[in-house]
Amino acid sequence: MARIHPTAIIEENVTLGKGTSIWDNVHIRHGASLGEECIVGEKSYIAYDVKIGNRVKINAMVYICAGVEIEDGVMISASTTFTNDRFPRATFPDLKSLRPSEPDEHTLPTLVREGSTIGAGCIIGNDLEIGRWAMVGMGSVVTRSVPDFHLVLGSPARSIGTVCKCGKLFHKFESAESGAYACECGLEYKITDRRVSENKLNAEIAEDAEKINELAYA
Ligand SMILES: CC(C)(COP(=O)(O)OP(=O)(O)OC[C@H]1O[C@@H](n2cnc3c(N)ncnc32)[C@H](O)[C@@H]1OP(=O)(O)O)[C@@H](O)C(=O)NCCC(=O)NCCS
Ligand SMILES: [Zn+2]
Predict the structure, then answer these.
(1) Which of 74, 153, 163, 169 most suits a substitution to test ligand 1, by most atoms within 8 Å of the C-beta?
(2) pLDDT at position 202, please?
(3) N or C: which end of the chain has fewer CB within 10 A?
(4) Which atom of ligand 1 is found nearest the CA of 121?
(5) Residue pair 67/49 in contact by the 8 Å Cβ criterion
(6) What is the Cα–Cα distance from 218 to 213, expressed in whole angstroms?
(7) Could you give the CA distance from residue 13 to residue 27 in angstroms, rounded to a whole number?
(8) Is residue 100 predicted with pLDDT exceeding 50?
(9) Of the ligands numbered here, which is closest to the C-alpha atom of 209?
(10) What average pLDDT does range 137-166 have in this prediction?
(11) Which residues of 22-45 are buried (b: 16+ CB within 10 A; e: fewer)?
(12) Share of the chain above pLDDT 90, in %
């Protein structure tokens, strides 16, 4: 069962997975779905039909608009704002009627891939992807897709290096390097023209790490 703070507003047809916690004054619009063991911090907003995977951490005051999809294990830090309309207007040209707020052909998607982290106070543009295990530095403005495992920062956000699944920076970009790199945690990666791929052995190392974790917490 999900834990829901009494001040949270959960609209109809919202799905909340087992072990998910919704803190105070969160608003989740109709049709949204969250997987298992997610945390949604206070005063965050999740729009209509937004899909969120398992074990996603959303801090306080995060704004997630329609058209956003978030995969498993993503962290979204406090005060991050997503956007879905590139040239927004409140009304039609005669100023006599409001444009509808429901998603329409101007609503552009954003996909946040598994394991990635978005730092505090970021603005995320639309029609783009944040890659698997990528990391966005605090206060960044993301205007283009972020490749898997890249660390981006600034306004506009630019890649400065690559981060491991454990969160550590394992390589800083100086040019369009290629090569083999290892993080101090043991995971290994190959970089080809700034594209990062995982060493096949990573799955085994991750499995070992899981076993070690199990032993440590037994
Ligand atoms: C991007 C980040 C991972 C880099 O960490 P780091 O490798 O330890 O970086 P350093 O502090 O050594 O800084 C390296 C350089 O990048 C700059 N820098 C660091 N973070 C930056 C950011 N978010 N935006 C712009 N520049 C940044 C530093 O000023 C420094 O520049 P300098 O060499 O000219 O002085 C970290 O700064 C960050 O933003 N983490 C996310 C924090 C967060 O939002 N947490 C949320 C949960 S509490
Ligand atoms: Zn590592």
Answers:
(1) 153
(2) 73
(3) C
(4) 44
(5) no
(6) 8
(7) 13
(8) yes
(9) 2
(10) 98
(11) bbebbbbbebbbbbebbbbbbbbb
(12) 85
pLDDT, average across residues 126-143: 98
Closest Cα partner for 187 from 196, 177, 195, 178? 196
The CA 210 to ligand 2 mean position distance, Å, reads 14
Which residue blocks in the chain are alpha helix, DSSP H? Answer: 202-217
Number of the ligand 1 atom closest to the C-alpha atom of 153: 24
Structure tokens at 17: 């997975």
Identify which ligand lies nearest to the alpha carbon of 165: 2
Q: Whose Cα sits closest to atom 7 in ligand 1?
A: 169
Please check the confidence at residue 218 and state whether its pLDDT lies above 50.
no
Average pLDDT over residues 88-94: 95
Q: Is 53 helix (H, G, I), strand (E, B) or coil?
A: coil
- Tell the residue nearest (CA) to atom 43 of ligand 1: 119
- CA-closest candidate to residue 129, choices 173, 176, 50, 70: 70
* Token digits of residue 160: 């400065």
Q: Enumerate residues 6+ apart whose C-beta is below 8 A from 174.
A: none
**Centroid of chain to Cα 184:** 25
pLDDT, residue 187, reads 95
- Spacing, Cα 78 to ligand 2 middle (Å): 24
Domains annotated for the chain, with CATH where assigned, are: 3-163 (2.160.10.10), 177-218 (no CATH)
